[in-house]
C-alpha cells in the first residue's frame, strides 16, 4: 500500500517563499488525501475483481489514476524543493537542458509559462522522455491529463490553487518566480540519472 512520505524539512523551512501554514496543509491534508484515495481505490478494485462486479470499473480506473498520480507528483515536488535550493543546474542535466531547449533561460521561460497558464488545476513538469531520449516540458491537467506516457517527472511545479493561494492570492506568477529560488538541482539530477538507466 501507499504511504505518505515525511517532508525532508520542517514545514516552515521554505519561508518566506512558501509559508509553513501552506506546507502543513498541503502535505498533511492534500497529499495525505491522495495517498488515502489511492489505497482506497486499490481495495475497491480488489473487491470488484473478487465479486466479479466490474460495472464500475471505468470510474475506479479514473479515480486510481487521479490519486496515484497526485501521490507521485507531490512526492517528487517535496524533494525538488530545498531551503538551500536555487541557482542553476550543472553537469549532465545542464547539458541536456541546453541541447533540448536551446538554453537554460529558454527552458525556464517554457516551464514558467506551462505552470502559469494551466487552466484550472494542474502542473508544469520537466520530464525525461525515454523513447526519444530527451527532456520535455509538459503541462499536466489535474494530476494525470495531457501526459506523454512513459515520461518520468524530474521537476514538478504545483499549479493548483491550494499550493499558493493562501499566501499569493491570485498572483500566481509571483509564486512561480519564488519556486525557482527553492529548486534542489541535485535532486532533479539524481532523478534524471535514475530515469536514464531505467
Ligand atoms: Mn498540491
Can you offer a commentary on this structure?
This protein is mainly alpha-helical and 198 residues long. The protein folds into two domains: 19-80, Helix Hairpins, CATH 1.10.287.990; 91-197, Iron/manganese superoxide dismutase, C-terminal domain (minor pseudopilin epsh fold). Helix content is 53%, strand content 12%. It is built from seven helices and three strands; from the N terminus they run ααααβββααα. Strands 2-1-3 form a three-stranded antiparallel beta sheet. The radius of gyration is 17 Å and the shape is globular. The site of manganese (II) ion has 7 residues, from helix 1.
Entry summary:
This protein is mostly helical. It contains seven helices and three strands.
Set out the fold topology.
Layout: H1 20-51, H2 57-80, H3 91-101, H4 104-116, E1 122-129, E2 134-141, E3 152-158, H5 165-168, H6 172-179, H7 185-197
Antiparallel strand pairs: 1-2, 1-3
The structure holds manganese (II) ion.
Amino acid at each position: 500500500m501507499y504511504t505518505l512520505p515525511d517532508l525532508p524539512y520542517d514545514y516552515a523551512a521554505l519561508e518566506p517563499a512558501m509559508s509553513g501554514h501552506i506546507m502543513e496543509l498541503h502535505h498533511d491534508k492534500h497529499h495525505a488525501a491522495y495517498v488515502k484515495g489511492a489505497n482506497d481505490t486499490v481495495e475497491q478494485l480488489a473487491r470488484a475483481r473478487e465479486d466479479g462486479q466490474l460495472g464500475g470499473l471505468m470510474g475506479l480506473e479514473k479515480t486510481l489514476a487521479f490519486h496515484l498520480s497526485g501521490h507521485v507528483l507531490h512526492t517528487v515536488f517535496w524533494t525538488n524543493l530545498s531551503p538551500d535550493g536555487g541557482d542553476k543546474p550543472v553537469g549532465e542535466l545542464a547539458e541536456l537542458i541546453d541541447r533540448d531547449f536551446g538554453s537554460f533561460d529558454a527552458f525556464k521561460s517554457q516551464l514558467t509559462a506551462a505552470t502559469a497558464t494551466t487552466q484550472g488545476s494542474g502542473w508544469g513538469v520537466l520530464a525525461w522522455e525515454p523513447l526519444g531520449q530527451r527532456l520535455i516540458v509538459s503541462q499536466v491537467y489535474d494530476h494525470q491529463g495531457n501526459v506523454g506516457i512513459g515520461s518520468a517527472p524530474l521537476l514538478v511545479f504545483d499549479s493548483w490553487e491550494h499550493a499558493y493561494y493562501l499566501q499569493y492570492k491570485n498572483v500566481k506568477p509571483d509564486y512561480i518566480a519564488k519556486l525557482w529560488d527553492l529548486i534542489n538541482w541535485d535532486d532533479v539530477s539524481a532523478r534524471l540519472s535514475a530515469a536514464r538507466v531505467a
